[in-house]
Amino acid sequence: MPLNPDSNFETIDVRTDGAIGRITLNRPERRNALSPRMAEELTTALRRFEQDPAIRVLTLRGAGGHFCSGGDLAPSPSDASSAPDAPRPHVIDLMNRVYGGLIRTLHGFSRPVLALVEGVAAGAGANLAFACDLVYAQEDARFSEIFVKRGIGLDCGGSWLLPRLIGLQRAKQLAYFGDWLDAASAQAIGLVTEVHPTSTFESVTTERASTLAERPPIALGQIKQSLHRSLELGLAESLEIEAVTQAACSGTEDASEGFRAFLEKRPPRFQGR
């Protein structure tokens, strides 16, 4: 069912499937190229899902057999500020406010976000996937930090994400050459969580999302936040955060349910309280 009948999204499809929110980039004629309008609609959808406590996990994918071919190099008239010859102040505002706002919102989303990647994920599209918590790829998926081949710098968080995911030298290798990586190679260096054949991709990713939707959402949110913050903190600060989050989680009904289920040798039924 639609998230909101009044959403009026033009470039994305947004639906709910029980406790799973599903966002699909829906410009298949452009291989789901990321336009300013799409970035703004994605940000809006993420914020609406953030406000819905019934949603425990999100999936993000592309329509038509491709994830996202990168930033739209042929924007519509309403997106003219994204054109290569746009005045520099407009480009700065566009990149920081619109695209940067999307990546900040996605990275800060309080529940797990799964990127489901088929076909091409290039440039901004690749970094959109890497900004998610987990990346599941079909065996035919291909990734590229293609910016250098277009004469432009990294965007959509690539300069921050890549060194943290795969280390500085590998990040430079990808960014300097802009070569394509197949799904298996991307998994081997840590950019992709799992790779699956087309025949099982839907069933496996549905199972992964469903499993996360059954996990305790308060604990998952605390785990995600503490892992993200650890990137900027030392060990001592991370231990302090762990102590605080454990105390917060231990007072929830979910924690009591987890212990009861363990003692009673049954699956837990977490309610998010």
Written account of the structure:
- With 273 residues, the protein is of the alpha/beta class.
- It folds into 2 domains: 12-213, 2-enoyl-CoA Hydratase, Chain A, domain 1, CATH 3.90.226.10; 217-264, Lyase 2-enoyl-coa Hydratase, Chain  A, domain 2, CATH 1.10.12.
- 46% of the residues lie in helices and 15% in strands.
- The chain has 10 helices and 9 strands.
- The chain has helices spanning 36-50, 88-108, 124-130, 158-166, 168-177, 183-188, 198-213, 217-230, 235-250, 253-264; strands spanning 12-17, 20-25, 57-62, 113-117, 120-122, 134-138, 142-144, 180-182, 194-196.
- Strands 1-2-3-4-6-9 form a 6-stranded mixed sheet, with helices on both faces.
- Helix 1 runs parallel beside helix 2 and helix 8 runs antiparallel to helix 9 (235-250).
- It is globular and about 60 Å long.
Average pLDDT across residues?
88
CATH architecture of the largest domain: Alpha-Beta Complex
CATH topology of the largest domain: 2-enoyl-CoA Hydratase, Chain A, domain 1
- Could you say which overall geometry the principal axes of the C-alpha atoms support? globular
- Biggest sheet statistics: 6 strands, mixed
Structural class: alpha/beta
Order of helices and strands: EEHEHEEHEEHHEHEHHHH
How is the topology of this model organized?
Blueprint: E1 12-17, E2 20-25, H1 36-50, E3 57-62, H2 88-108, E4 113-117, E5 120-122, H3 124-130, E6 134-138, E7 142-144, H4 158-166, H5 168-177, E8 180-182, H6 183-188, E9 194-196, H7 198-213, H8 217-230, H9 235-250, H10 253-264
Parallel strand pairs: 2-3, 3-4, 4-6, 5-7, 6-9
Antiparallel strand pairs: 1-2, 7-8
Helix pairs in contact: 1-2, 4-5, 8-9
